[in-house]
Specification:
Length: about 375
């Protein structure tokens, strides 16, 4: 495939790790193929992308964009005003940066940039992570050149001729004995006891945190080790509640920056069922107990989780049942080696390790077509 010398790409979106990490993966693949590529990110001011993107060495411009309040409130007038401001800022950025392509990874932050790019004749590519398409991507789809998705049946949201099933781009995670040993040292854990990884997503999950808190004494006595990502919002409160507990085998953090090492040493994990989390779980082949968030559009996390459950690649517990049964279930998985190995094998079979490369292939195809 043709290599473009001075490819310039704007990548836009964010709000959660589920949007940010795919964006970073796409950027890294563009740079891997051609180090001369220039990449500019846009996101929502004050959101986590404004910290995570620069940490990866990329420049990001924040837009004063935010989502609508569901109830009727004066704040929505401010949202509309800021949306128009964001369109003007995006317009100026695009005219100055002169991108070859604009890539949207979802979240309301991608709306102004992709809309102005399409209006100015810049080719656009959308990446939709979930089985239920986000409203921003649905609004942008009509003018998009290509829409990369992870699930079949997305024609109900997007024009069928624009859809390409690529899978979801995820962070580079190498599973090996070398990284396992490095992970044990990094988290100061031993190879003699099983490791449970608890993740509630980049922002945390109240139900999962409450379930672990409720059973903390049992976990301490269960002869296992725990890496627990609480999310920034819940971290201080949880630390305070546990200040008098002996946490010798439990590592509590607001965010796991070396998630690759955590995956390497995990024998089982608890997670929400966001699309990117599931893609990473499949890629690493880990035994997972999924607790879909009920606070998402069209209950799409349950649909995501069921795609694995039907293949016997994961177990699922409803959010409303988690506090009572989640820890019982995960301890059972840790003790039942045949079950754990079955989940691991079936999970890995569903992985799409070349998703990011496939998406960047589509970027190059669009640019080749533009050049005629």
């Amino acid at each position: 495939m043709k290599q473009f010398k001075d490819i310039r790409a704007i990548i836009s979106g964010g709000g959660t790790g589920g949007h940010i990490f795919p964006a970073i993966s796409i950027a890294n693949e563009l740079k891997r193929r051609n180090s001369a590529s220039e990449i500019l990110f846009t996101g929502a001011s004050g959101r986590m992308e404004m910290e995570k993107i620069p940490a990866e060495g990329y420049k990001i411009i924040g837009l004063p964009i935010s989502g609508f309040q569901r109830k009727l409130t004066f704040k929505n007038f401010i949202v509309v005003y800021n949306a128009f401001r964001s369109l003007r800022i995006a317009d100026k950025l695009i005219r100055n940066f002169k991108p070859d392509i604009a890539i949207g990874v979802g979240g309301y932050a991608s709306g102004p940039t992709l809309r102005r790019a399409a209006k100015l004749g810049i080719p656009t590519l959308l990446q939709e992570q979930n089985s239920y398409a986000g409203i921003t991507n649905r609004l942008l789809a009509k003018r998009a050149d290509r829409i990369c998705v992870a699930y079949s049946g997305m024609e109900k949201y997007f024009p069928g001729e624009k859809i390409v099933i690529t899978g979801n781009p995820v962070r580079t995670i190498n599973i090996s004995e070398q990284y396992r040993n490095e992970g044990l040292k990094y988290f100061n854990l031993t190879n003699e006891l099983p490791v449970l990884l608890v993740m509630g997503g980049s922002l945390g999950a109240r139900t999962i945190n409450q379930a672990v808190l409720k059973s903390i004494d049992r976990l301490i006595k269960s002869n296992i080790q725990v890496i627990w990502q609480t999310g920034t919002y819940y971290f201080d409160s949880i630390r305070k509640q546990l200040q008098y507990h002996s946490l010798q085998n439990i590592r509590i953090t607001d965010f796991i920056s070396r998630i690759d090492l955590a995956y390497n040493i995990a024998d089982a994990l608890i997670s929400r069922a966001g699309a990117i989390s599931l893609s990473e779980i499949c890629l690493t082949g880990k035994a997972a107990i999924l607790v879909p968030s009920p606070n998402v559009a069209e209950d799409h996390q349950t649909k995501n989780a069921m795609a694995l459950v039907k293949e016997e690649a994961a177990l699922m517990i409803k959010d409303c049942d988690a506090e009572e049964v989640l820890i019982d279930k995960v301890l059972h998985v840790l003790r039942d080696e045949p079950l754990r190995k079955k989940l691991q094998s079936n999970c890995f079979r569903l992985s799409k390790p070349d998703s990011t490369a496939h998406i960047v292939d589509e970027v190059y195809k669009i640019l080749e077509k533009e050049e005629g």
